[in-house]
Specification:
CATH topology of chain A: Ribosomal Protein S5, domain 2
CATH class of chain A: Alpha Beta
Oligomer: homohexamer
CATH superfamily of chain A: GHMP Kinase, N-terminal domain
Protein name (chains A, B, C, D, E, F): Ribonuclease PH
Family (chains A, B, C, D, E, F): Belongs to the RNase PH family.
Strand content of chain A: 25-35%
Number of helices of chain A: 7
Subunit structure (chains A, B, C, D, E, F): Homohexameric ring arranged as a trimer of dimers.
Distance between the termini of chain A: 40 Å
EC number (chains A, B, C, D, E, F): 2.7.7.56
Structural class of chain A: alpha+beta
Number of domains of chain A: 1
CATH architecture of chain A: 2-Layer Sandwich
Shape of chain A: globular
GO molecular function, one term (chains A, B, C, D, E, F): 3'-5'-RNA exonuclease activity
Strand order of the largest sheet of chain A: 1-2-3-5-4
Chain lengths: 244, 244, 244, 244, 244, 244
């Protein structure tokens, strides 16, 4: 891939086309189909009154997430984790990342003793599934909070509950070049790749960089962070428009 | 529901609107989004060269199916089977039904030593998910066989491989009235319900009737079968159009 | 098997010898060893006071069933499901069928908040294990209800509790001929096979027909149903005698 | 139970009635229903040609055992281990004991590269299920070896293969008195209980004594061993008669 | 190994060097690193107020044990049981043995409604891991009881709670010679091996002898028991010193 | 903790005392007990000839890691993952991190078709268990490579195999202050915490920062990275000394 253009002709700091379709399914309190190019994730937010036993009486709500992939979301079919009888390490890791990221967006005290489960199911994968999931889940969570507000079921003022927006994007170094929002082909070829979760105000929520196929110097890390912050700002804007 | 019209105003022998969207996702060799009213199932067909060990050298191909529901496909969120660490009885039962039904549509000798896995994932449920899955999976399987034909990877003549079309529909008795293609609200209220799988020629592949909330007489069974055969004929026509 | 007599010389509409031995084991509230020819199933009914949590306070009882096979009940040894760590699809499917069928025989309101588990363990298999299990479990359940009656632990009048008898039989088409109560050798060779559960009054509780190795026309279905209804009537008579 | 007679009126050194019914089921190469009073265990021996991978080419055969209880073999129903998804510690422990004991009875070199699985399923339990299982499994294994001999499938001379008989019995101290072959009621009340496996020649294969509800002195151990050796000799005689 | 000295030059009735290091880790209420030569087991005692649900209101405490091995405690790495998803038979069996043995040392009524879990993790294995575990766990349990005494959380007088000391040792016959405290090399070569748990007063708690690779006569059993009783007395002395 | 000194009186950029004890256990090819203050992890490296099937013939070696905690390594006892029957998300995540980090230290081509499993078992936990594990596992892996070199079993020159050293440390912001190498008490109180893996040359291998209890600005991230790089340099020096 050295010296070559990106597979889809984008510039290095350009996102793929992003769509956020609210209300994609009818049952959940919030549901968003998010697309980052060929990556397509269905994010649903399910509300239940009350919180898990260990949290009862705390006055605080709870938000958790589960990520999964359909078996043929990818180029080669994977066995179902239900059939294997266990959730894999990668799935666990991503579910935990999404949960932590979204909890950063919400004031659990203002939510009150309500629980929200965010299910992020990858229908089609082309790189960046976890970052698309976080970006979409934020909108679904926002809708679920709106649903609670309409029922006057929040402990705090509705506008206080979602106290920060969060969005996420991947960045990486391919053939020595820092690039934003990697597609699958680039992800596989990256020497370094990083997932960054930012707030709408440009602060960091999570930074996860890994150089399995290489190591990276401080200045490379800096340019990756620059790209990611700019990308997240664009995604935050897309979220604002979708929620308008 | 006694003496009342159907929830969506249909006549007793009327199907819900049916759509079969081919090529809904890009990776699988066959992929169909099938909709029976508010029921929405993504059916993908994944081809692999070769067959399971116990079948090697037989000259016969293999077709199998896996059915699953997204956790919030339904009105109330269900726990993921991957998280529970086991596939439930209902899931097992439906996966086996889909597999048997689709194997009736294909000449495994003409398929040659190739395997096809049919994944039927319910994205949204409103009754009849298993019958929609069978109806959609037939079209996805047909496309996967076309993909093999294009690669000259079939043992027999392409037109011999898919030797019968199969489609399926539910029927039931609600408030004493036999009805076709039950939605969820009717399914729950049915005294008797039956799933019927027919070939395009009008023969039966599977008949599964159950009267848990009541028992049924021979003439009731007969009128349910009449409704189902007519419904399957309409679905077979929709499949022909989709594949044209 | 074309044009040949049945392996055991029976006529096409003849049952195998049926025995129902009540009180086969000493601990359970009801226990029956049922034999359909070489098929031998131990059916026990275990009563517990109270119902599962989700049913408490409903005033209704609960009946459920679990089916299993000893590893060497069949010609070739199968691995134990306990050792594999999961219950297989076939086992699940049959357990659910037995549970539904037996719930059709009992008035759960008259039973009151009591639970009965029906364990059907196949000690020796020669075809028709699920139909033998249903037929035997009815007698075991009847005895368990009698046990409750003797303790005055029923909510309704004892004679109201078991409001219908249920029995089951398999039928199939072998070499074009419709036959009743298939043994293993016939089961394997059948083009179509069907399990039918009837009440003592001749109504249907369940009809499950499958044509994996072929498809079947309406008139074939009709003649299979005729055979099954007659077979179930004979089994109902055997149950009456056993309970006399 | 102090100073009282045994629940069934036996003397302290008396076995319960023992029966060994060969050929109880038709499929296995060896099958024995063994009864020690109210304890009833079905022991089957399943032969397969060849040995597990790790033993291939060794010239040695393999014998292993699996023990299990039907859910209502006991006074209170137990959950199935298949449903719980794991084999319990007690089951594991007994299966391993049976396997070791039976391997002591057979010359694995003379058996040649054949495998035998001994399934011991408790149909009804009244104490001593593991010792009944060992005693019955010996006879089933003997029959399976006879089956191999008839097919000339043994590596050594048939009479060399089963080089020792093994039988087992429980003993315990109840209210200070040493007793042979405890029934359930005694087992629960025992201060010390011991399971002893002996050869027909009176040597020990296994000695497992436990004093959870108390401790025991050397002379108590000695009198328990005396009782057990005498009991095993009687059981060995019963095995000889059954095999005659 | 016939006629040869022991691998480490000991006499047949000589223990390996034994060390009992109390307070090896800081968090548990009792923690002991026990070493029998190259065998090294970390025993921790974890106290919780209250008892499991089935024991509530009985006034009795509860003591249970879990044994495990680090994957590379042995010469060849074993797969982790957590990764395999199930606890193996050997692990189960040893955990149960340790639990029973330690319950013999404690007056559960005097303990009151408190629970203690004894975790015995083998850091390095060279034979006799279960007997070292029992010997070390006794000291850890003693410390945990002391911790409860200091908090005045016992139901009975502190000196009544640990009413007996328990220690354990392995013995075996190698090349016809009875030996005490087998190392791994001897364990593998033993014709007969036995694990014996004794109280400080010289009574038996558990006797488990097995002759998988042979059988054993009464006089051999007697000499093994003599060796074991003497070995346990030495270990009881080491426990007394460690607790002084 | 605002404005207060660190619990153990360290300065903000000071590591806890670090020890690396090589050869702590006798069986593994490499074994290191690593201590970061009260955190104590046993790291073993197990070599096997050959590689997993999917890698055969590639000429490349394989290095993988498994992390686990003893149940009472922490202040409150945790249930064993083997008993729960599944590996938790946190365990999975850390095992994967250790594996990736160590693979960055080794030239898998020079290693040749050999496999190394790094087991990192936490014997006592006081914060920073994953970073201690990486730091210790590097030394254990180095010893295992030395073992292979001594057997002339490497594909490349021994000095080429371990082509980079890797070490790891945690950093975090507590009460607004950036601190190095958090102990448990600080870890729980941190607004932001980050784990950083560096090479001996000061490049990054992994950067994982999370602000669940807050978000962090770019300058905060920068000062955390400065601290971490300096800390890793000290650890690299400790590794060099240990290996000298």
């Amino acid at each position: 891939m050295q010296g070559m253009a990106r597979p889809d002709g984008r510039g290095p700091s350009q996102l793929r086309p992003v769509t956020l379709t609210r209300g994609w399914s009818t049952h959940p309190e919030g549901s968003v189909l998010v697309e980052f190019g060929g990556t397509r994730v269905l994010c649903t937010a399910s509300v239940t009154e009350g919180v898990p036993r260990w949290r009862k009486g705390s006055g605080l709500g709870w938000v958790t997430a589960e990520y999964a992939m359909l078996p043929r979301a990818t180029n080669t079919r994977s066995d179902r984790e239900s059939v294997k009888g266990r959730v894999g390490g990668r799935t666990h890791e991503i579910s935990r990342l999404i949960g932590r990221s979204l909890r950063a967006s919400i004031d659990l005290k203002a939510l009150g003793e309500n629980s929200v489960v965010l299910d992020c199911d990858v229908l089609q994968a082309d790189g960046g599934t976890r970052t698309a999931a976080i970006t979409g889940a934020y909108v679904a969570l926002h809708d679920a909070v709106g649903w609670l507000a309409a029922r006057k079921a929040l402990a705090g003022k509705p506008e206080k509950v979602m106290h920060r927006s969060v969005a996420a994007v991947s960045v990486g170094i391919i053939a020595g070049e820092a690039r934003l929002d990697l597609c699958y082909e680039e992800d596989v070829a990256a020497e370094v790749d990083m997932n960054v979760v930012c707030t709408g105000a440009g602060d960091f929520v999570e930074v996860q960089g890994t150089g399995e196929a290489g190591v990276f110097a401080r200045d490379q890390l800096d340019s990756l962070l620059d790209l990611a912050v700019a990308g997240c700002a664009e995604l935050a804007e897309a979220q604002r428009k979708a929620l308008a």
